[in-house]
Amino acid sequence: MQISRKQLAMFLATIFVVNLVVMGGGAWLSYENEPEIPNTIVGPDGETVATSDDVQSGKAVFQENGLMNQGSMLGRGSYYDVDYTADTLELKTDYMRDYYAQEEYETAYEDLETPEQAAIDETVRQELQSSTHGERVEYSAAEAYAHEQVRQDYVETYHEGDRERGIQEGLIPTEEEAEQFADFALWTAWISHTDRPGTDVSFTNDFPYSPAAGNDAGGAVMTWSVIAMVLLVAGAGIAIWLYQAVELPEPEAGGVSIPHPKEIDLTPSQLLSTRFILIGAVLFVLQTFLGGLLAHYYIERDGFFGLNELLGFDILQWLPWSIARTWHVDLGVLWIATMWLGAGLFLAPLLTGHEPRKQALYIKGLIGALLVVAVGGLAGIWLGINNVFDGQLWWLLGNEGLEYVEIGRIWQAGLLVGFLGWTALVARGFKPLLDREPRYGLAHMIVYAGGSIGLLFMAGFLYTPETNFVMTEFWRWWVVHMWVEGVFEFFIIVVIALTLVSMNLLTKKSAEKAVIFQAALVMGSGIIGVSHHYWWAGLPEVWLPIGSVFSTLEFIPLLFILYEALGQYRAMDTAGTDFPYRMAFYFIVASSVWNFFGAGVIGFFINLPVISYFESGTYLTVAHAHGAMFGAFGFLAMGMAVYILRVTTRNTHWSERRLRWSFWLCNLGLALMLFLSLLPVGFLQLETAFTQGYAASRSLEFYNGGLIQTLFWLRMPGDTLLILGAVLFAWDVVAKLLFQRKATAEETSGHVIADRIFGDRSPADPVSDDD
């Protein structure tokens, strides 16, 4: 089936517009149906129990003190502590049982006979399930009693501290703030058991699973899970048919002249782009060490190999879980993005042979800005969680406290300016190509990808600490998911295509056709696919069918990326042992394989509604995150770094020995981490959620179980190999930068890659879009 580039480009543009229309309409619908916080919650005597101000202040306490990276809310956040929604719902249920046992039998609930307990259980369940939404909510006497008891529990745990759970004293500075945090968590528990007006399910589709409170997976969850399975089979068949029907080119090394690194002229800006690789490598090492510390915290929650007893160093006070985890997550995004920024700036002169005026100076400015934002943002997190800032500065300069977008809003604005500046610099570098090619050319595509990163990041500016938590989550996932499942995948496709063109393994026109086709598949499913994060977050029911369909379709482009990886491996294999970019290809192919497994296989499984309902916020999500983020995006960043180093390092000082060790250590380490620890813990957690309820699967009792602790120890081999792989990689980067080639003139009369792409270096009329 012959399809032109222009037809594919029109298809891609249509998909992008449809996505914006659907998600824009979804935003309006979500605002219209958000679960508003009641103005007042009163007891049976009319006395005020809590107000909307208490709940909203509790949300600010939750964010300011990094509690989303300590535990989770509505299944979103960290998995170290409890899920606050499930925990308060379970505590509320237990205290209501205690209240009725004392009122009716004058004894503890545990001392009652089974029939009496069953009667109380039914009373509590019916009472919770009959809650109604409104501006004024009236509690029963049992609910009012339970609310106050939960408040006291949260004061004891999060203000006074609980070292057994890894919670330092003063995590929440005052008793009043701890009570407000409890009010906020109890509000999320309340919307989880209160039916949305006009429906027979709660605002959260009855999440979390709690038989005692009457929360259970409904019929729609089961129905759409079956539909998703059918779509998976159909989608796989469609993917195979498309792969056979659409004539997409594969990289071919046979009979092709592959430019050797020593033949490629270098510009000053290209040599400067290697500084991004150095910064990224250092951040990568720091991230892996923090990952090892976080893994150890599950074994020893109140110390680190006895340092407190030996030296008096209390790591829980200086580097508690919430800060270490926040840094670990943010460093993962930073080091990968930093290397990608360097790759984009390096590829522009590589394909054009052109160095714009003052480009090197502007890149130096971008590097400086990146360092300021990275250091300022990470320092702000520590200062913010430790309550150094007054007033509104805690979320402007400190810690905004939302997973993956934790850094203060001012630092986020700096990142946005940096993304836009990078896009402008890439556009300057690719200008000779932009002037000659149609609007769907490769150079245009990387500019579109860069612009999309900035565009979607702006969604993070559409909420403040005063915004309803449900809508905060709506916009936060625009940044997190649409980056990962949409723009990042798009960027991967474009960068790999540009790399193959620079190696002369694909013609530019062939690469453009493949990129547009795969980008259409990625955008067609990935952007609307964000809605699977909305199922249990208090957003409208309509997201359940939409998310089920598009989350399943996300699997199709990953099949194509896997096919592409196999084609790249064949090209590398036929190129022979003299192929100079073999090591870079190893990392790029590994990226595609891990993308298929981590994002595709694990991602599809946990995004089935019937699985997601029970597993959201468990170790299966941790496995998915590591397999997708590091496996897919991390290995691609490393592959691009190796390619850049191969071109910029003197040929006499090039060696692949350390890189080869790093490659296998990182791959084996990630595999051991997933298969010996993360996935087994996740499946056991899923079983516990099935049989005992969601709160039990996130409890300290579960994590401290003998088998689970053994599985946590089994994470050590994988973590150790990963850390060694990161250190070796950083060592190799430093070693190769010491023997960097010299820059040639800013623009040469002959360029081995640019001459082939342009054919004639003389000025020419722009290419028509009809080409």
Automatic annotation (TrEMBL):
InterPro entries: Cyt_c_oxase-like_su1_dom (IPR023616), Cyt_c_oxase-like_su1_sf (IPR036927), Cyt_C_Oxase_1 (IPR000883), NorB_cytochrome_c-like (IPR054309)
Entries under Gene3D superfamilies matching the protein: Cytochrome c oxidase-like, subunit I domain (1.20.210.10)
Keywords carried by this UniProt record: Membrane, Transmembrane, Transmembrane helix
SUPFAM superfamilies hit by this protein: Cytochrome c oxidase subunit I-like (SSF81442)
Pfam families named in the record: COX1, NorB_cytochrome_c-like
Transmembrane portions of the chain: 9-31, 221-243, 276-299, 332-353, 365-385, 410-430, 442-463, 483-503, 515-536, 542-563, 584-608, 628-649, 661-684, 721-739
Name of the protein in its database record: Cytochrome B
